[in-house]
Design brief:
- Keywords: Membrane, Transmembrane, Transmembrane helix.
- By secondary structure, this protein is mainly alpha-helical.
- It has 7 helices and 2 strands; from the N terminus they run H-E-E-H-H-H-H-H-H.
- It is rod-shaped.
- The chain has a two-stranded antiparallel ribbon.
Length: about 220
């Protein structure tokens, strides 16, 4: 009887150990499966995120292009039911550097003054600035009183040359700064031309005076 009891105890212990081992193996297998599932979920989530980012990056430039096209060609419905295209801001900025035709209000604010270019170079100043009254200086070639009229008209044109050029509607200026820059260039050129002309006249006068003195001295020598 005792032997039978010992055998029963051994079999029960053996069965308990087997069941314990099976439970341990099952737990290990379940833990491994859980870890593998978690890794797979992480991989899938990262792949999904990457795909979403790629799709967003692909869609963003298309949206920008569409917006740019809409800004470049805006349309407005007219009273007749037709659509007219408004000029874009880019087209306006490309023509920003071009001068505009100043109206009377802008021109009235621009101050004029004496200009040496109009006085010393009246013909060139008049043609370049569409102030054609300067061509009257060509009357200096008239014999007799032509040179007197030429000097008087040069002074008058030096006083009024800028004002007459400004009053011509064909002349185009952005503002007073651009007008003043053009006229200052003519002022410097005219001053240089005036100085050269005065120096040339003085040189010629001295030359003729010396020539006349030499002729008179030679005549006196022949008389004696």
């Amino acid at each position: 009887m005792e032997k039978d009891e010992i055998k029963d105890l051994e079999t029960t212990e053996a069965s308990e150990t087997i069941t314990d081992k099976r439970e341990e193996v099952d737990t290990e297998v379940s833990e491994r499966e859980n870890s593998e599932n978690e890794q797979e979920e992480l991989v899938l989530s990262t792949v999904d995120e990457l795909e979403k980012v790629e799709e967003e990056t692909r869609e963003e430039p298309q949206v920008e292009v569409v917006l740019e096209e809409e800004e470049e060609v805006p349309t407005v419905e007219t009273a007749a039911g037709r659509t007219s295209v408004e000029p874009s801001q880019d087209s306006q900025s490309t023509y920003a550097d071009e001068p505009f035709l100043a109206d009377n209000q802008v021109k009235s604010k621009i101050a004029t003054k004496w200009n040496w270019g109009a006085m010393a170079l009246p013909v060139f100043f008049g043609i370049a600035n569409r102030s054609y009254l300067g061509l009257l200086s060509l009357l200096v070639i008239v014999p007799g009183i032509g040179w007197i009229f030429g000097i008087a008209w040069a002074i008058v044109f030096g006083i009024n040359g800028e004002r007459w050029a400004l009053q011509n509607p064909d002349n185009r200026y952005r503002d007073e700064e651009e007008f003043r820059k053009i006229m200052d260039g003519w002022n410097r050129a005219g001053l240089v031309a005036f100085i050269i002309g005065v120096a040339a006249v003085i040189f010629m006068l001295l030359f003729f005076i010396m020539l006349g003195a030499a002729i008179f001295s030679s005549i006196d020598q022949f008389q004696y």
